[in-house]
């Protein structure tokens, strides 16, 4: 929470042109911070200072507990957010007694408006779950299943919060989703580094580790995740069904024709 607040405060000095760029910057920095403070710090603190890998209080047990605590702190705490219920309590008191709080109109509007949906933090939490599960997959295979459960629960929880308990989010472009999807190219590399760390820790190093590292690096530099927002060129394929393409018409038009969109709206208003 402290690092997230610090990252957002420092992001104010980066002078991003759009909300989308701001969310991308926050999400990337927060993802890196979460990965270092979970996967890397846990490995350094446990594996390099103790040979108790599998016993009580060892690396394996700490990894399992970190999976569970991440689920509780991130998913359940967002669902049962104390700030949300405190805001509801204040609303009910103010509705019952208008003199309960001396508020001006703007403060009352803010109280009765739901919290904004934090897209950047959600992306960062999901990516960190993937990286954490991949890093410890060779040592803790159960983490893959726990990570899948975490992502599934997070999807439904975030969907509920977005539709039922959030204010209207700011207009953002598809660039945010594209950038977050492109971060998936780090997954094979994270998995290989985690596997190499486990083999080094257990003394089971082999030439296959070097081969897997080369494959992961080749994939990292050659992977192409540019399949979400292709711009107007993405609709030139005559084989693209209308039902598939129509979902992007408005987004692509506003993204590539900002002036004409603004001009047409102005003329309609006039």
Short descriptors:
single chain; 270 residues; mainly alpha
Descriptive report:
This protein is mainly α and 270 residues long. It is 70% helix and 0% strand. Helix 1 runs antiparallel to helix 2. The chain starts with a helix and ends with a helix. About 7% of the residues have low confidence.
Question: Brief description of this entry?
Answer:
This protein has 270 residues and is mostly helical.
Structural class: mainly alpha
Instruction: Outline the low-pLDDT stretches.
Output: 226-236, 252-260
Number of helices: 13
The ordered H/E elements are: HHHHHHHHHHHHH
What level of helicity do the residues show?
55-70%
The biggest beta sheet is recorded as: none
Overall pLDDT level? 77
Radius of gyration of CA atoms, rounded to a whole number: 23 Å
Strand tally:
0
How much of the residues is beta strand, in percent?
under 5%
Shape: globular
Termini Cα gap: 47 Å
Topology (SSEs and partners):
Blueprint: H1 2-11, H2 19-47, H3 59-79, H4 82-96, H5 105-112, H6 119-135, H7 142-164, H8 175-182, H9 186-202, H10 207-222, H11 242-245, H12 249-256, H13 258-269
Helix pairs in contact: 1-2, 2-3, 2-6, 2-8, 3-7, 6-7, 6-9, 9-10
